[in-house]
Amino acid sequence: MKITEIRTRVVEWKGKTVPPQPHFCTNAADLLELDRDSMASFRFHGWLIVEIFTDSGHVGIGNAALSPLLTKQTIDLYFKPLLIGRDPFDSEFLWQLMYRQTLAFGRKGIAMVAISAVDIAIWDILGKATGQPVYRLLGGRTKKRIPVYASKLYSQPLEQLAKEAQAYKDAGYKAMKMRFGWGPIDGAAGMQRNLELLRTIREVIGYEIDLMADAYMGWTLDYARRMLPLLAPFQLRWLEEAVIADDLAGYAELKSYKLIPIAGGEHEHTIYGFRTLLETKAVDYIQFDTNRVGGITQARKVAAMAEAFSVPVIPHAGQMHNFHVVMASLNSPMAEYFPVVDVEIGNELFWYIFKGEPDQENGSIDIREDVPGLGLTISEDNLKNFAVVE
User: Fold this and answer.
1) Span 260-271, pLDDT tens digits
2) Does residue 152 have a pLDDT over 70?
C-alpha cells in the first residue's frame, strides 16, 4: 500500500458565534492589559482537515486546530513531498522522517502540530486497512467504557453558572471542569471572584462529584502561590495550567506544596518534552493533546512513559484521536468531553466538522468495535457553514 495524495483543507466557521462573557477565562495574554480581547488568539474558529489517500482506496483523516493555515502550509510544502509513494504501515519511519527533516525549524509548535495531523491520518489508514478500530492496534480495550468529564463552565454570572453545573450533574457526569476568570492584574478582589465561581459550583454538585479548575496559563507563579491555600478547601481533583507552559520550575514548585494536584502538558510536545516534565516531578496529571503532541505515534509513547512514573494521562480535549489512546491505556482513567453547544471558543467545532464522535451517556462514552480506524467521517454537508481554504 502506498500514499498517493495528501489533501489539506482549512475550514473557517462563518455561522452563529456566542460572544464570551467578560472575564470569560484567564489566559497568558491577560498580563499585557491589551485594548483588544486578550482571548482572541486562543479561540479555534478555524480547523485543518487532512486526508491521506492510498492506492488501496483507504483514506485516512487527521486534523489540527492550532494555527490551521500555517499548519496546512507546513504539510503542503514540507511533508507532502516526503510522504507521497511511502507505505503508511511504516508509521514509525514516516514520523521520524517528518521530525528529523524539520528539526532545524520544527521540534515543537506548528511543525509538531502538522506532524500530529498527518500521523493521526496515517493511524486511521492502518485501522481501516486491518479492519480494526485504532485502539485495538494500540493494545485493545482496557475498560468497558471511558468515563468522561464535562468540560466547560466558563466564568459567567453565578446564576447561569449554577444552572450549567446542575445540567451536567443531571446528565450523570461524575466529574466536571470549570475555568477561572480573574488573574494577577485583578488583584485580591479578583481572587475572591474566582472563589465565588468555585463556591457556586460546589454548592450545586457537592463533594461526591469531582471538580477540576483551569487557569489556562493566565496566572503567574506568585499569584498561584497565593491562590493555592484559598483553593484547597474546595478539594479540586487538579489545578490545570496555573502558569505558562515553559515555566516547568513553577509547575514543580506548586506540586511540591501538596495542596492541590497539578496538571499540565496541553502545550508540550513529544516524548522529550514529557520526559522533562516527569523527571522534574512537575505535574500530577499529564494532559497532552494527540493532535499537538506528535500524533498517536508519540501519544502512545508518552502514555507508556507516564505509566512508569505512576502519573495518570488524561488528554486535553475530547475527540476520537484522544479517545482511542485513552481506551488502550490503563493509566488513563478518564477523558475530557466538550458538550455539544453553539460555537463559542471553537472546541465544539469538532461536532460540526466530523461525524462519528460518541455521545456521552451517564458520564461515560464507548468506542464502537465494528467501525475500523478512528471511526470518523467528514460532515461535508455541514461544511457549507464554513469558508473552505484548499
Assistant:
1) 999 999 999 999
2) yes
Is 316 one of the catalytic residues? Answer: yes
Please give the C-alpha separations between residue 130 and each of 1, 4, 49, 116, in angstroms, as whole numbers.
12, 19, 23, 21
Query: Pairing between strand 262-264 and 285-286?
Result: parallel
Looking at the DSSP bridge assignments, the partners of residue 60 are 52
| Dihedral in degrees, nearest 10, Cα atoms 138, 337, 354, 5 | -40
Q: In this model, does residue 41 exceed pLDDT 70?
A: no
Determine whether 36 is exposed, middle or buried from the number of CB atoms within 10 Å of its CB (0-12, 13-18, 19+): exposed
Alpha-helical regions (H) of 13-131: 68-74, 80-83, 91-101, 109-130
User: Is the full-model pTM beyond 0.70?
Assistant: yes
The answer, yes or no, to whether residue 36 has pLDDT greater than 70, is: no
- Residue 287 in contact with residue 314, Cβ under 8 Å? yes
Domains and CATH numbers, the chain: 3-131+380-389 (3.30.390.10), 136-378 (3.20.20.120)
pLDDT of residue 344: 85
Backbone dihedral region for residue 18 (phi beyond 0: left; psi -120 to 50: alpha; all else: beta):
beta
Of 45, 316, 321, 324, which one is the catalytic site residue?
316
